[in-house]
Amino acid sequence: MTSIDPAGGDEAEPTDAMIFESAEPMDLLAEAEESQAHNRAKVGAARPSALLYTYGVGSIMDLPQFSIMPAGLDDWEPIWRRRQTVPLIDEPRLLDVVQKHLGRSVRQLRDFPWQPKRVAQSQEGSDLGVPARVFPQWLRCTGCDYLGPLPRFTYTNTHPYRSDLAAFTHESCPGRGSGGRRRSAAVPARHLLACVDGHLDEFPYLLWVHRGEDCPAAPLPDLQLLDSNLGQGAGAVVVCTRCRERRGVGEAQGEVGRRKLPACRGRHPHLDAFDQACGLPTRLIMMGAANLWFAATQSVIVMPRTAQEDQSALVAAIRAHVTPDRIAKYSDDPDYFRDVLVGKHDLAEVSDDQLRSAVSNALEPGPSEEERHAELREWDPIELRLPEWDYLQKPVLFPQQDNTSGLMVTEMPRGQSLRRQLTRVIAVNRMKKVNAFMGFTRIDEMDRVGDLPTRLVKLTRGRRPTWVPATEDRGEGVFVQLDEEAVAVWEQRIRPTGLWAAHCAAHELNFRKRFSESAAQVDPGTRLPPPRYWLVHTFAHILIREMAMSCGYGAASLSERLYAWSAAPGRPAAAGLLICTTASDSEGTLGGLVALSDPERLEELVDDALRRAARCSSDPVCGQRTPRHGEDFLHGAACHCCCFASETSCERANRFLDRRFLLTLPTIEDERVPGFFSAHDAV
After folding, report:
1. Cβ atoms of residues 532 and 654 within 8 Å
2. Helix (H) or strand (E) run with residue 320 in it
3. pLDDT greater than 90 at residue 115
4. Backbone φ, ψ for residue 3 (5° rounding)
5. Which end of the chain is more exposed for a tag (fewer CB within 10 A), N or C?
6. Which residues pair with 467 in a beta bridge?
7. CA distance 139 to 168
8. List of residues 6+ apart from 309 with CB closer than 8 A
9. How high does pLDDT run on average in the chain?
10. Stretch 638-663: mean pLDDT
C-alpha cells in the first residue's frame, strides 16, 4: 500500500512509497517511520480537485514507474487519528444530498488529510496523506518481457524528495541477449477485467494462456507478455515459458471474446476485499481506459442562510461532532454542547432554547431505507441549483449580502449594444463552492437521477460510511441570463424540427446501449435535457473559449454552471449560465474573470464568441453533423475545433451541444433550424 500527499498547491513536495497487503485498516505512515530508510511511505502529491474528479478512491493513478489505487475510507481512519480534531466542511444542503444517496449514517463532509507547510523543507503535514494500494499487481519486465505478480519484483527508492525514483525492478533479468543478469525496470501489465457493478480484477494471464487448464509442464510456470506496443494495447501475446503455449489477449475483445472470460469474482481492489457471489459477465478493459472510473460527485455554491437553514446547520453540526448516545445523555445540558462545538460552529447568537430544539431534532430518527430510496427516486439535481437561481433573481438583496457565506455579487448595467436576447449580467465577485465525492462507477457513467443506488461502488468494507471526502473552493465568475420569453418561443419552434427528432432518437439509442441494466427501467425521454439546455450549454462553451483569451486563466481553469430547465409545479423555468473559476487556496482567484462583466468588454466578447461559432474549420462536416442511421452520438454541429471544452470545464462531458441552436448556420444543406441568435447578428 502507498500514500499520496493531497497537496494544496503547486509547491507541495512529492515523496515516496511503502507496500502493504491487508484487509484491515493500517497506519501506513506509522509503519513507515519504523521501517528502514530505503522504504518510505509517500509516493507523490496531487491536488484535492484531482483526487475528487480524476484520481479518487477506486481509480488508477499512473506514477512514473508504477501505478496505484487510492484506498477506501476505512484506511483513511488511522491517518485522521494522528490529529486531535478533524477539519470538517459545514454545508447542510450538500450533506443532505449525500445522505439521500448513501444513507443517514453519513454525518460529515471531511477535507483531505493535508496541512500546509510554512517553508518548503519543513515537516508540517508530513504525517498526513491519502492511503493507496499498488494496482495492477501483475508487472511486466521491460528487459526480458517476464510477466509475474508483485512479490516477484523488488521495490526500490532511496531518495526522500524524488518520487520519480520509486520503482519495481526485476533483479535477475536475463535480458534479451547474452549480456548476463541485470536489473531491469518493471511496468504494470495493463489488462484488467471489470463488470457493470463496479468490480475490478487482474486479467487471468495464467488461465488465459492455458485456456482454463493447468500447465502440463509445471504447476506455476513463468510467463512472458510479448507486445510490440510495450503493453499498451490488447494486441499483446501471453507465452508460457515451460510448455510454450501462447495466446493473444486480443481474443478477449468484443462480444465473442467476453464469452471466453471468467465470471466476475466480486473484487474491490480499493478495499482489498471481495463481494460474495457476483458472477456477472466480465469484459476486458485497459488500465488507461476512459470508462474505467467515473466519479459521482455533487456540488453547491454556498448561499446566505435563512433562519431555518441556520437551524438545520446546527443540527448537522451536532450530529457531526457528537455521538448519538452522548446526544441523548446530555440532551438537557446546553452547556455541554456549547463546549463541544466551540471553534466548530458559531453559537454566539444561539439561545439555550434554540440549542435544545436542535438537540431534539438531532435525536429524531431519520427516514427508513424505503423512504430514503423513494426520496432518491423523486430527487432531481435541479433542487441543488434552485436556491442559487432564486438568489440571483433578487438584486435588491445584493447590497445586504451576508459575506460570511463567501458569496458577493454585483448586478452590472446592461450594455446598450449587448444582444437583446441577453437580459441580465451579474458579476460574481466572490463565491465559495463545496464539492462532495459520493462514490464511483465503472463501465458506465451514473446518471444521478432515479438510477439504481446500487450502481455506486461502496467506499467502505461491510458498513456504510460515516463521512465522505469534500473540497471547498473559492473563486469568481460572470452570470448571464437569457430572455425567458424569447427562449420559450424559440424552444417551441425547435421541438417539431427534424434535427430535434434526430437528437431524441440518438439519445434513446445511446441510453439503451451504454447505460447499465437499470436503463431498462427508465424512460429515456426523462433523461434528455430540453432544447433550452442545449442552447445554454453551447453558449457557455463558446463563451469559455472566448473568455480564456482575455481573463488570464486557461480554458481548462474555467467551468460552467448551467441553469436551464423547463417550468414545473413549484419551480419556474430558468435559462442562464455561470462561467466561474475556483481554487482551493484560501484567497481564491485574482479577479481577471469577473472583470469581463464590464458592459463594453462583455458586449465585444459575446459578439466575438458568436462570430467564431458561426464558422468552424471542420465545416461543412461539423455544421452538417446530425445523428442518422443508428448513430448514437449526443452532439450535433460541435467539435474540438469550435465548441468542445476540457473535461474540467464541462459538466456533461461535451454532450448536448449544437451550434445550430445558437445560429442559423449557412452550411446546412438540408433543414435550416432557427438559431436563437439570428444569422445576421453573428456575421
Report:
1. no
2. helix 307-321
3. no
4. -135, 140
5. C
6. 108
7. 9
8. 92, 93
9. 84
10. 92
Task: Please give the Cα distance from 511 to 172 (Å, whole number).
Answer: 51
Contact 149, 189 (CB under 8 A): no
Q: Could you tell me the three cell numbers for 172?
A: 535477475
Those residues with Cβ within 8 angstroms of residue 501's Cβ, 6 or more apart along the chain or in another chain? none
Q: What is the mean pLDDT of residues 311-324?
A: 85
Query: Residue 540 CB: number of other CB atoms within 10 A?
Result: 27
Write out the H or E segment, with its range, that includes residue 97: helix 92-102
The DSSP secondary structure of 254-272, one letter per residue, reads: HHHHHTTSPPP--EETTTT
> What interhelical angle do 531-547 and 484-494 show, nearest 10?
120
**Other CB atoms within 10 Å distance of the CB of residue 501:** 11
Cα angle vertex 114, ends 112, 118, to 5°? Answer: 155
Contact 408, 429 (CB under 8 A): yes
Between β-strands 108-110 and 467-482, what pairing exists: parallel, antiparallel or unpaired? parallel
> To 5 degrees, how large is the angle CA 319–CA 323–CA 324?
80
Residue 549, C-beta contacts closer than 8 angstroms, at least 6 positions apart: none
Task: Please give the grid coordinates belonging to residue 444.
Answer: 458506465
Encode pLDDT of 137-167 as tens digits. 999 999 899 999 999 999 877 666 677 788 8
User: Which cell numbers hold the place of 588?
Assistant: 481564491
| DSSP code at position 198 | S
* Whether the predicted pLDDT of 666 surpasses 80: no
- Give Cβ neighbours of residue 523 (< 8 Å, ≥ 6 apart): none
Q: Which amino acid is at 189?
A: A
Q: Are 80 and 29 in contact (CB under 8 A)?
A: no
- 19 residue type, one letter: I
Is residue 414's pLDDT more than 50? yes
Q: Which stretches within 333-475 are classed as H helix?
A: 334-340, 352-363, 369-378, 382-392
Query: At 212, which amino acid appears?
Result: G
Residues, the chain: 683
Using 50, 70 and 90 to split pLDDT, how confident is the model at 521?
Answer: low
Query: What's the one-letter identity of residue 264?
Result: C
d(CA 361, CA 352): 14
Nearest to 605 by CA among 542, 534, 533, 523: 542
Cα 398 from Cα 396, distance rounded (Å): 6
541-560 per-position pLDDT tens digit: 999 999 999 888 889 899 99
* 590 or 90, which is more confident: 90
Query: Residue 623: how many CA atoms within 13 Å on its side-chain side?
Result: 22
Least confident of 115-119, 120-124, 318-322, 433-437: 120-124
| Pairing outcome for strands 61-62 and 42-46 | unpaired
User: 440 falls in which pLDDT band (50, 70, 90)?
Assistant: very high
The residue whose grid cell reads 469474482 is 265
Measure the CA–CA gap between 164 and 157, rounded to whole angstroms: 9
Mean pLDDT, range 27-49, rounded to an integer: 64
| Statement: residue 251 has pLDDT above 80 | yes
Q: What is the mean pLDDT of residues 68-80?
A: 91
The continuous run of DSSP H or E covering 192 comes out as strand 191-194
C-alpha cell at 78: 488511522
Region for 592 from its dihedrals, namely left if φ exceeds 0, alpha if ψ lies in -120 to 50, beta otherwise: alpha
> Of 533, 535, 534, 515, nearest to 524 (Cα)?
515
Nearby residues of 444 by Cβ (< 8 Å), 6 or more positions away: 196, 291, 294, 455, 514, 515, 516
